[in-house]
Design goal:
There is one protein chain. This protein is 30% helix and 43% strand. It is α+β, with helices and mostly antiparallel strands and 194 residues long. The chain is elongated, with a radius of gyration of 25 Å. The protein has 4 helices and 7 strands. It has a 7-stranded mixed β-sheet with strand order 1-2-3-4-5-6-7.
């Protein structure tokens, strides 16, 4: 009888070790999937589909790389109006964060970097900007919602070119080349800071 007791202990220990290994393998699989090309391609497809359902225009994204837990790099972003005119193009858009900082309020990004932005803002004779036409008319809201408070620790825009066309401008056109912005930005209940 004394001989069977150590055998039961060994069996119990082996079962616990097997369970621990299985849990670790599942956790490692989940962690690796958050970096997988398959998941990032799926996210790209969902983002493009959702945006195109809501825009009076089209959004296209060439690729998304990175890690869902810590940040992503999006390349080849383009927004076009219904006439297929480019309104916005971005070579690369990089976002760094930690998951807890996105979940907790105020929401916080460590880095939001835009590189190679090309924007084209055009005001028609009816004084409506092409960017305004991208968004459908808002539906009246039944109740007012609380504002979302957020901050971006490092906001970086490099190599930006913005073209503005409007009858309100003296020459009808304004173009800014090689614009760079390095700042931080936040919106809290008691302040708006750039």
């Amino acid at each position: 009888m004394n001989n069977s007791n150590p055998k039961k202990k060994t069996n119990s220990t082996v079962k616990w070790l097997i369970a621990l290994v299985v849990v670790l393998l599942v956790a490692a699989g989940i962690r690796l999937s958050l970096k997988s090309d398959w998941l990032l391609e799926y996210a790209r497809g969902v983002i493009v589909q959702q945006a195109n359902e809501q825009l009076n225009g089209t959004l296209s994204i060439d690729s998304i790389n990175g890690d869902i837990l810590f940040g992503v790099k999006v390349t080849g972003v383009a927004v076009r109006d219904l006439q297929e005119d480019d309104i916005l193009r971005i070579d690369t858009l990089e976002v760094s964060y930690t998951l807890p900082s996105l979940i907790r309020k105020p929401h916080r990004l460590d880095l939001f970097r835009v590189n190679g932005l090309q924007g084209s803002l055009v005001q028609d004779e009816d004084a409506v900007w092409n960017v305004e036409k991208l968004l459908p008319e808002p539906e009246p809201e039944a109740e007012e919602t609380d504002p979302i408070y957020w901050s971006v620790d490092r906001l970086m825009v490099d190599r930006a070119t913005v073209s503005i066309q409007s009858g309100q401008l003296p020459d009808g056109r304004l173009q800014v080349d090689e614009l760079s912005i390095h700042s931080m930005i936040e919106m809290f209940p008691d302040r708006w800071f750039v």
